[in-house]
Amino acid sequence: MWKLIIISYFTFNILNTYSFIRANIRHNIKHNIKYNKYTHLKSSNEIEIYNQNNLKKNVNSSFCYKCDKYENKCIKIDDCNRSEQDTFSSNDKSNIFYRFGTNPRLAYPNDKGQLTWYPIGFKQDFGMKPKRITIRDINYVVWRDKNTYYALRDCCSHQGSSFVLGNICKNTISCPYHGYIFDGNNGELVQIPKMPHVDSHTQNIDFFKVVEKANIVYLNTIPLQNEEMKSLVDENSIFIEPEYFDKNQRCVFLSEDFEHYAKFVSVNSLDICHIGFVHTFGNRKNPNPLYNSKVEQMDDYDNHYKIIYEYMAGDKSLVNSIFKFNNITVENEYALPHTTVARVKFGNFSSTIVTYAQPISRFKTRLFVKAYRNYWSYDMRKSENQFLYPLLSLTNLFGDKLTYNTMFTTLKQDKSIVDFIDKTNYRDMHGRFSIIYDMFSNHYKSNYKKFYEESHDMI
Ligand code: FES
Ligand SMILES: [Fe+2]
Known about the structure:
Blueprint: H1 2-31, H2 44-59, E1 63-64, E2 69-70, H3 90-96, E3 117-122, E4 131-135, E5 138-145, E6 148-153, E7 168-169, E8 172-174, E9 181-183, E10 189-191, E11 207-213, E12 216-224, H4 227-232, E13 250-258, H5 262-269, H6 275-278, E14 291-292, E15 296-297, E16 304-312, H7 318-321, E17 327-335, E18 339-346, E19 349-361, E20 364-373, H8 383-386, H9 389-418, H10 426-430, H11 439-453
Antiparallel strand pairs: 1-2, 3-12, 4-5, 5-6, 7-8, 8-9, 9-10, 11-12, 13-20, 14-16, 15-16, 16-17, 17-18, 18-19, 19-20
Fe (ii) ion is lined by residues 268, 274, 278-279, 414.
């Protein structure tokens, strides 16, 4: 009898714990919390599309024109029963198609396209589902098949539909409106359903180069005319932070939407004096640096500049309260047009924030953020760390969680100021005077104007 009671008691406890863990996991997945909070921060456009996608899923009605079947998901192009005659031959194409773009087409990428690379998200944001990206009010559709990215203007050349509800088969995408199929490799119209040879009113779509560098995905806004032009767009000019190659660094990813110019969002990341007043970890008693170096041009990437400050850590900062360092070194860097680095060094430790601003429209910016640290960070692939595996991996997770939460609050604090910088007067929003510690953000502003705004015909 006693045995039965004891067994029942333990079984009950085990089942209870199991269902508690399961419920928690489910809750986390459902609300997509923790490290994917940025997925909730959508533009209104995307929210709309997101809902449509849900609807589409529910009614279960995506139609594959390549197979003439209703399908839940795209059938691989090789499995399609598409006959050869349904596809245009290359000769047909040269005769019957002509191209035009809504962007002025360039014969060759201007200045090799160095300053036309825009961050559009993290690698994990892209897959075989079409995603709409907006850069300076122009919409693009982007998808990823394994490690290959495709990008077209998100405006079907037939009647302007978005491709976001379309089907993807490897490199091709079908328009959800009338089912025309386009090739992501070159923007060419490959097929009109059941019309093997159409000799007018059809044309190709602007296509774009997309690359992934250090987990960030970039799109170059120069519209390409042919696949050879892709190779002329220079992707080696994209800045990569050294922390990415350092195995002792761990990184968490976040994003936040701001209601201001991308330029001002980046300026905020380079502004040393706001930290004491805006951020919990800042030093309000001593908000200015103790020392600042000259601005130095780095020779690793074009338009990469750096300044170094000595700064007194705030009482509530992690550096002061846990690591017991009073003085820190802050390295600020920028790489035009939209990347900034803030590297805080104390003893042998460092904490680095890298930001990438995506200008969505004039007063709308999405900031992608990587927060690196080399403390509470253990490379679990190293054999010496395997011995203490549970303890060290818990330390890693604890560090990730704390870094994520601190950065999440930091971004909200920045947003509470930047969103309300006056937008009515161009001169006022740039400020009427500066102090010496505004030197680096002013340096960024004037280089931004010289290299970027002037070549992009902006204010
Ligand atoms: S609008 Fe895209 S196929 Fe008609
Ligand atoms: Fe800030």
